[in-house]
Amino acid sequence: MNKQLLLTAAVMLGIGLAGGYWLAQSPKQKSAIQPVEGKKPLFYRNTMNPSATSPVPTKDAMGMDYEPVYADANAAKQPKILFYRNPMNPSVTSPIPAKDNMGMDYLPVYAEDEAKADDSAGAVRIDAATVQNIGVRTALAKQTLLSHVVRDRWPGSL
User: Fold this and answer.
1) How far apart are CA 78 and CA 58, in angstroms?
2) Could you tell me if 132 and 126 are in contact, meaning their C-beta atoms sit under 8 angstroms apart?
3) Which of 67, 63, 43 is nearest to 54 (CA)?
């Protein structure tokens, strides 16, 4: 039985070596990511590790192609700053960046923030996903009689 095991192991080793040699000799595949016609990439970025970049097309250790990064894709629109607001007292504003008396930087107010802002002071905005998750219910405020008596726990404290 020992001879049969050694013979099987030798045959399997030979098949493995022949298969590896055959795969190594097969033609290489072309890169799946091709540059866009008419655009020259600024650099190439690893899809799994964006901090790893290369000036030429290459592959990472796992064999994945680096993706090209173009100038148009990097151009991010900077919103227009209307003015700067004191973080501790929002009524105090400045047309230029400044610091308050405690050394805190004024916060920029952008044009799109003003368009979204609610006119009422103290308005609370909660995004739709959070509203759905915590089950927020809203209703119009109206003045009615209470259904039960409310007593002050400590008389004279109100």
Assistant:
1) 32
2) no
3) 43
Q: How many CA atoms lie within 13 A of 21 on its CB side?
A: 6
Question: Which residues, other chains included, contact 107 with Cβ-Cβ below 8 Å and sequence gap of 6+?
Answer: 84, 85, 86, 87
> How is the beta sheet containing 107-110 ordered, strand by strand?
93-94, 81-85, 107-110
Buried b (16+ CB within 10 A) or exposed e, 92-109: eeeeeeeeeeeeeebeeb
What would the pLDDT profile of 102-152 be if each residue is shown by its tens digit?
A: 899 999 988 875 555 555 666 777 788 888 889 888 888 888 888 888 777
DSSP structure string for 67-131: EEE-HHHH-PPPPPEEEEE-SS-TT-EESS--B-TTSPBPEEEEHHHHHH--SSTT-----HHHH
Q: What is the pTM of this model?
A: 0.31
If one counts every other C-beta atom within 10 angstroms of the C-beta of residue 65, the result is 17
